Amino acid sequence: MFLNLEFNNNEKIIDTHCHLDSESFYDDLDEMLFHAFNNGIEKIIIPGADIKDLARARELAMKYKQIYYAAGVHPYEVDGFDEEILREHLSNEKCVAVGECGLDYYRLKAGDELEKNLQKKIFKAQLELACEFEKPVIIHCREANEDIYGMLIAYVSRLKGGVLHCFNASKHLLQLANNGFYFGIGGVLTFKNAKNLLEILPLIPRDKLLIETDAPYLSPEPFRGKRNEPILTHFVAQKMSEILKLSKEEVLKLCFANSNNLFFKGYV
Prior knowledge:
- An 8-stranded parallel β-sheet has the order 1-2-3-4-5-6-7-8.
- The mean pLDDT is 96.
- The chain contains 9 helices and 8 strands.
- Helices cover 35% and strands 15% of the residues.
- By secondary structure, the protein is an alpha/beta fold.
- The protein has helices at residues 29-37, 54-63, 83-90, 113-133, 145-153, 171-174, 195-200, 233-244, 248-263; strands at residues 13-15, 41-46, 67-71, 95-104, 137-142, 162-164, 181-185, 209-211.
- α8 (233-244) crosses α9.
C-alpha cells in the first residue's frame, strides 16, 4: 500500500531517478502515482537498468504525461547489452537520457580485470550513444571513482551533461561539476552513517543539485526499510534545506530548475 502522506501541492518536485518499472509497484502503481502527482511530484524519470525492462518503462512513459524514461544498461546487466534496442528507445520522444550506465566494482574479486574491461566497454558504448543522440547520461558509480572520472573527462566536450546518480560524496568526482555534471541526492542523505555526504553536500554548486529517490530502494528516514516512493523526495528536500541553511521551498525551486535544465530543455 502506498504511503498516504500529505504535502503542499505547490512544492514542485522532479524525481530524477525512480524505478517505477520494478515489480514492487505492480499492485498499487496507479493509486500511488495519483497521490504523488497531487502532492507536488511534477515529473518522474525512470532510469533504464536492464534491456528487458525498457518496454515496461516506455509503456509507463507513454501512459502518463508526467513520466519520462532513460534507456541504458546497468553495469550488473552488461551481458544483456543490445545497441539496436537502445537506439530504438533513444529515438522515442519520452526518452530523455542514456542510462543508468557506468561502472560498479563492488562485487568484483581483486584482480578481475576481465569483468572491469567488459564494464568499461559497455559504458563507453553508451557514452557514444549519448553523444550521438545528444542526450544527458545517468551515471552509476560504485567503488570505481578513478575509472569513471577518467572516462567521463574524455567525453565531456561531446556530452550534453549528465548526473552522478546516488552521488557517493567523492571529492574527486565533484570536480565534474565544472564539466556539465549534476549530482543526484536521495534518501542516503538522511542516514546516520552518511557523514561524508553531509560534509560534501555544501560543496556541490547549487545549480548542480538534483533530487532523486532510487525507488523502491534507499528510503529516507524515518521510512528506512520500507518501499521508497516519489513522494518521499519531500523528506530529502527537507534534509537538504537543513544542511544548506535554506528553506525547503528554496531547495525545491533550485532542484526543479536544475532538473529541467538538464533533462527537459526543449520540452513544453
